[in-house]
Here is the input.
Amino acid sequence: MDTTYNSQMETTFRKGNSRLWDICKKLYIEHRKTILITICAYLGGCMVIGIWQGMSGSLAEDGSKVAYVFISGLICAVAASLTFNDLSTKEGRIAFLMTPGTALDKFMPRVITTVIGMCVLAFIGYYVWIMTDVLALGLKTSVWVPLTFYTPQFWSSQEEFLGFALLVSLFLFNESLYIFGAAAWPKKSFLKTTAIFIALQIVLNIIALLIFRNFDINYKSLDVELFGWIAVGIMLAIDAALIYAAYKNIERKQVI
Here is the structure.
């Protein structure tokens, strides 16, 4: 009995992997031009900015690096809002429903591409920008400065580790929120999700203002590091909840 059950489970697992791989290949074939154009446009934009900055005689500083994080986060949000863009049309919804596979098979490749793919692209774009900046400056002034990249010292500085964890949790919140918006309302997803995000920020800021105004808080006695890790935990829990809610939306569309 156990041997038969294990054999059935192994067969089901193999079929599931084969189906998931077939869906990945299908999505790649359908969107490879869009993926290639996106990669070339993003890296090309990073190169242009690096050339402009190097030709102007300046190197990337903290302010420009913060600006890069903001811009790349915005681009990643736009990409996340297009995760289920094919569901915005009748033909796309029919194609989605007619594709053999479970809702999870159709959900995971899109989400992994959006989150991990865009994150990798953003990191590569950062290095392309820095290297192009140094190259353009060297060609203009004949002064070749050494390349300096941000290398976080996680184990030597707890504050830096916490800051990096906060940045990652905020990035995942940004991505999961727009993925949820893409699943909940595929049409004009970016604009609708952004409006909700702004409204949420206004409400949270008002609540925080009321708390700080009506309660006497001794800031010196607060454990900033502890509150930071609590914030990371809460953000990651919200991220997981948003991804799960997005999946349930896709699952409901799959049934319909």
About this structure: Confidence is low (pLDDT under 50) at residues 4-13. Residues 2-55 form the longest helix (54 residues). Residues 40 and 46 are 10 Å apart (CA to CA).
